[in-house]
Design goal:
- 2 copies of one chain form a homodimer.
- Chain A is built from 10 helices and 12 strands.
- With about 300 residues, chain A is of the alpha+beta class.
- At the A-B interface, helix 1, helix 4, strand 4, helix 5 and strand 6 of A face helix 1, helix 4, strand 4, helix 5 and strand 6 of B.
- Strand 4 of chain A pairs parallel with strand 6 of chain B, so a sheet runs across the interface.
- Chain A binds a DNA duplex (30 and 30 nucleotides) through helix 3.
- Chains A, B: It comes from Filomicrobium insigne.
- Chains A, B: This is WYL domain-containing protein.
- Chains A, B: It holds the Pfam family WHD_BrxR.
DNA sequence: TTGACAGGTTAAGTTACTTGATCCATAAGG
DNA sequence: CCTTATGGATCAAGTAACTTAACCTGTCAA
């Protein structure tokens, strides 16, 4: 009883979820957290807390001496399903200064530090232009710094983009290059400006390397001892000692570099490459196809 | 005139920001986008669009033939400041399946793919326990898979955590280990369970490696040709050909590995390591201090 | 013991909503 | 050509969800 379940407005639901999020991760919150984050009055925040108590009975208590609302020991989430990876993704964004703590629901962010890589910011206008070209299935002119020594240092080229790819360190746009007549990756932070939209140069479907996948079978590096292999198998979720990862062929090069797979079995210190590829012949022979365009590499 | 600027409720402001976000990035939206995302009625969504038109005159138009609201050519954001890195961070979270498209404001997400690394999910209960210990300045028992061959394969150890660190591939918790009496990193996905809180074993301030920084001076790899060096300098924001990055000594080991700095100048193919360290003596001699605990490496 | 802080409550009034109806414009299909 | 589907605008009546203003309670620290 008490749990009257009428329809509930979006704003109220957000605040109930916020209350529960804070109770789960921080274990506590105060009324002022609600009033300041959502700009509501104190009676409203009190009302929300009462509503929460009503709908999730036994989850919340008021600790008079600490002057905080606290989660009870038998707290059981009812409005959100807690997700550690989501929490950590937010923490990373905060550490990278991509968002502010006050834009998340994290109340007291723990001290956290991510790799401080001093990458140039991407110009919103450029990203916006590429998005527009992708949506409209058209080509766009891009001023791009090329690593190809045959080319001008920076040049305008027309490309027909269709997707974005992230190699773990930076974003590329996958596009048909009207000069070279092939599909390539263009690093976003090397795009200096964008121009007009025009007729497309190719259909996205023609980008075979993008649309075909290789099933990479990974195992703990056999150069490791039995025990370390078990640890790696556990960490990467390999119940039977292996895991199959479908990887776009266009991304195989980065996948290889990122996990140091190529040299895994020959490297002197196997702890540098915890994973190795089972279907290595297939894997290695699939890589060069993406490696032929020097622009991709660096 | 027209722009009456009374106080505005949180829910309304969210919708106005949503409208502008969509206009900027997607260039268009329809009334139904608002009703479905925020659960409001059609008259309300119409009202919001009218309010937006009122407050940001000249930004929005209705294209009757496409049956969409579209951004005008002279669109100028008034409620949000567009941030490409933030957009891309969301895109990455979507590609990694950490959040759903419907949880972001991105209307039509472009095709995007991030590195598919099959990492085990972190148990929310474990992260929550560590957060609680950090907040309370107490120690916590953790069942952890050790890579140290002297130790049991999995063992309970008491640690006093104080921060989180991300090496680009995974999260660690930085903590004082009550067994080894030193501060170490513990990979989150190797923590299997957490236990009770107790007295702390050390003050966070005693973690010298965490709280002291080394100024790493980076330059484009000198093994590259002049022109490629210029490109790298541009991409990493080095107006005078160098950039100084303060890095926590506790993270130097990962920083080195991630950017392949150690071997940068000697590696056969310099395109694999676009960056090199200027103050290399200082840098290399600072690394081993963090490298002494094998647990960190793999 | 006083004040500052955190929270709760009640009453009266306002704003932001909903439902349900009716109407308009455009595009696509027969 | 007419029909239907889609997407939008608007009005009227009613209702949640708010606000402001005032006043009350418990706990802690000076």
């Amino acid at each position: 009883m008490g749990t009257t379940e009428e329809k509930i407005r979006w704003g109220v639901e957000q605040r109930l979820e916020y209350i529960e999020f804070r109770l789960f991760w921080d274990g506590e919150l105060k009324r002022g957290d609600i009033t300041s984050r959502f700009g509501v009055s104190t009676p409203q925040a009190s009302g929300d807390l009462a509503t929460y108590r009503d709908r999730a009975p036994g989850n919340i208590d008021y600790d008079g001496s600490r002057k905080r609302f606290v989660a009870t020991p038998r707290f059981k989430p009812r409005f959100i399903k807690p997700n550690a990876d989501r929490y950590l993704a937010q923490l990373e964004a905060i550490a990278d200064r991509v968002i502010g703590v006050d834009e998340t629901w994290i109340g007291a962010a723990p001290a956290a530090e991510a790799m401080p890589i001093p990458r140039r910011k991407v110009d919103p206008a450029i990203l916006k232009g590429l998005l527009a070209a992708i949506r409209a299935h058209r080509s766009i002119e891009v001023e791009h710094r090329s690593m190809n020594p045959q080319r001008e240092e920076t040049m305008w080229r027309r490309i027909t983009p269709h997707a974005f790819g992230h190699d773990g360190l930076r974003w590329h746009v996958r596009a048909f290059c009207h000069i070279d007549k092939i599909f390539k990756d263009f690093v976003l932070s090397r795009c200096l400006a964008v121009g007009e939209l025009h007729e497309p140069g190719a259909e996205p479907a023609q980008d075979d390397l993008w649309f075909s996948f290789l099933d990479v079978v990974l195992e703990p590096n056999p150069a490791l001892n039995e025990r370390d292999r078990r640890t790696i198998a556990h960490e990467y979720g390999m119940p039977d000692g292996r895991v199959t990862v479908p990887v776009r062929r266009a991304l195989l090069y980065y996948f290889n570099k990122r996990l140091r797979l190529e040299a895994a079995k020959t490297i002197d210190d196997p702890t540098l490459a915890p994973l190795a590829v089972v279907n290595q012949d297939e894997f290695l022979s699939a890589i060069p196809a993406t490696k032929s365009h020097r622009d991709l590499l660096m």
